[in-house]
Design a protein that fits this description.
about 575 residues, mainly alpha, two-stranded antiparallel sheet
């Protein structure tokens, strides 16, 4: 997008000319100048703001810079970011004084338009007008860079600010950088920055510690998180509900419920009571390990303590019951939520619909689907895809096609997952021609086709006996640098071509990675090709690759099978097993 277009266009289209303001605009601008003070709070739309601005620049003496900044801030709050940029340019042409606060508003607008590069161009105006940089300016730019996932640029800017003493980082700047790093998985860098901060004049507070502790917990580095938790307490920085929630979430995900109970007790003893966020974390953790009844008991207990669950909490427990196939309980809880005046959202409906589809109760799923629009909600692509998969599973292909057409008529576009459901559904029900037609239509339109599409295609063709076509598509993959996953090796003949495929990938500049090698090794294990598996394992080692968890699991199964077969042939081998255990114990 060129800069001219940024200056000329707003999110609602072309900005109206300042000299041709619509006579239908509200009388706010006229009323505004009946007194010496502004009435910016009454601006309700972009047209009001532009009319008011034109009146302001015609007034003598000009309103204060503060009044202009208030108007720009109001426009930002209305999300008319490009209009803010245009008004700023008009201000400069009209000789309106500019200060650092106004420039920061404009920089923020550029960042919200996903153009931090244009935000940086504003720094020249600071220098030209002799306006000193401040920490707010650079906080805004740092936030804009992280929002665009420009991690390296953001870190380099921060280092430059510190190294060249351009400005002293405050707590907010440290929090922006730490949040930006932690949310993108850079837990160690976040921790290192905490140590750097401790050496400076700005000391970390509870908010900063919470960022680092949460990052460590999400990275499953619970020992380091607990150590930091104890450290902040020793330094006299009291932990809060956010600190405890992060730790509880980390231990829930590891299934360490005794430590969760300890943290809960410690919280309550400090008069820090769990909020709905903490409640949802615990119920989610319990549901993920199948303790759904316990999760519901926790929710009931918290209600008694005055902590009311929200729709997210209910969704978590409803999903837990659905995953266990306990649809009566799931529906009871869904209805209970409505009785308590907690409105279900589209996720609530989709979770329950998925549960019914998994149990092949399509009539109940469709009945619930029709309830969605009656209750003022709109089904999303996930809801439609869930129903489609359920219909194909029970062989109702005609109705699935009608339902898909209905989805398209609402304006929703199928995503990659939806297309895979359609392809798999057609193959599953023997409709090979329809599956191929759909695939070729997407190819002709040059729409996204990823490796999963090819996996479904190859697997579907094999299962329907079209081995030649499957072979042709397998060959095609090496030319475009893709490689099938485990499901792509549906017949031994395709697996035998693995070496050729790897060679072609190398020749075409698509070097195979560790994932590719693991897939091939699992394929050899699946078909009992031990010698080929060993050959590929050695090649993996030469390239510095190692087995992943799935491959190791298959390898253990294969060794166990070999041992069982050997014992079946020679039962005397069984006598060696106890001796082996005894030797290892010693």
């Amino acid at each position: 997008m060129t800069r001219i277009s940024l200056l000329r266009y707003s999110s609602n289209g072309i900005i109206p000319s300042f000299s041709a303001i619509s006579p239908s605009a509200s009388p706010i601008a006229i009323r505004y100048y009946s007194s010496s003070r502004s009435n910016i709070e009454n601006v309700k739309c972009l047209n009001d703001a532009l009319n008011l601005f034109r009146q302001m620049v015609r007034t003598q003496p000009l309103p204060s810079v503060f009044e202009f900044s208030k108007l720009l801030k109001t426009m930002v709050n209305m999300k008319h970011y490009s209009s803010v940029v245009s008004v700023f340019e008009e201000m400069r042409k009209s000789g309106v004084p500019i200060d650092g606060f106004i420039l920061t508003i404009v920089i923020n607008s550029y960042c919200l338009m996903h153009r931090p590069d244009c935000g940086f161009s504003m720094l020249a105006i600071y220098l030209k007008n002799g306006i000193p940089f401040d920490v707010v300016t650079f906080n805004t730019l740092l936030r804009g860079l992280f929002a665009e996932n420009k991690i390296k640029d953001a870190v380099n800017l921060f280092k430059k600010l510190v190294r060249e003493n351009i400005c002293e980082p405050n707590e907010f700047m440290y929090s922006i950088v730490m949040n930006g790093l932690s949310k993108r998985g850079h837990s160690q860098k976040t921790f290192d920055l905490l140590r750097v901060m401790e050496q400076g004049s700005t000391k970390p507070n509870a908010y900063i510690y919470n960022i680092v502790i949460d990052a460590l917990c999400k990275d499953r580095m619970l020992d380091a998180a607990i150590s930091l938790f104890e450290e902040m307490k020793q330094k006299g920085i009291p932990p809060d509900i956010v600190t405890y929630s992060s730790l509880i979430d980390g231990f829930c995900k590891l299934g360490q419920w005794e430590k969760v109970r300890t943290l809960f007790s410690e919280m309550v003893n400090l008069n820090i009571y769990p909020d709905v966020c903490t409640l949802t974390i615990v119920t989610d953790g319990l549901c993920k390990v199948g303790k759904v009844e316990d999760a519901e008991e926790v929710m009931k207990h918290m209600i008694e303590k005055g902590v009311g669950p929200d729709v997210v909490t209910y969704n978590v427990i409803i999903d837990g019951y659905c995953l266990r196939g306990q649809m009566d309980r799931a529906r009871r809880l869904f209805d209970s939520m409505i009785d308590k005046s907690i409105e279900p959202n589209i996720f609530s409906y989709t979770i329950l619909i998925n549960g019914y589809c998994q149990k092949k109760k399509l009539d109940e799923a469709m009945h619930l689907f029709r309830e969605i629009s009656r209750n003022g909600l709109k089904p999303d692509i996930v809801t439609y895809s869930t129903i489609l998969q359920g219909l194909f599973e029970v062989g109702r292909t005609d109705f699935a096609e009608i339902f898909f057409a209905e989805m398209l008529s609402t304006g929703l576009k199928p995503d990659l997952c939806t297309i895979q459901i359609l392809l798999r559904g057609y193959f599953q029900n023997g409709l090979v021609e329809k599956a191929m037609l759909l695939f070729h239509e997407r190819e002709a339109k040059r729409e996204d086709i990823d490796i999963e599409h090819y996996n479904v295609l190859i697997d579907g063709l094999c299962k329907n006996g079209h081995f030649d076509k499957a072979h042709a598509f397998f060959e095609k993959l090496s030319l475009i640098g893709l490689f099938p996953n485990d499901s792509g090796f549906c017949v031994e003949g395709l697996l035998d071509e693995a070496k050729d495929t790897l060679r072609k990938m190398d020749e075409n500049g698509h070097s195979p990675n560790d994932v590719t090698y693991n897939i091939i090794v699992r394929g050899f294990l699946k078909f009992g090709k031990t010698s080929e598996m060993i050959t590929f394992s050695k090649e993996m080692a030469r390239r510095g690759f190692s087995f992943d968890a799935s491959t190791v699991e298959l390898l253990i199964d294969a060794i166990a099978k070999l041992l069982i077969d050997a014992i079946a042939k020679d039962p005397s081998l069984l006598n060696m097993i106890p001796q082996f255990h005894l030797e290892n114990k010693n």
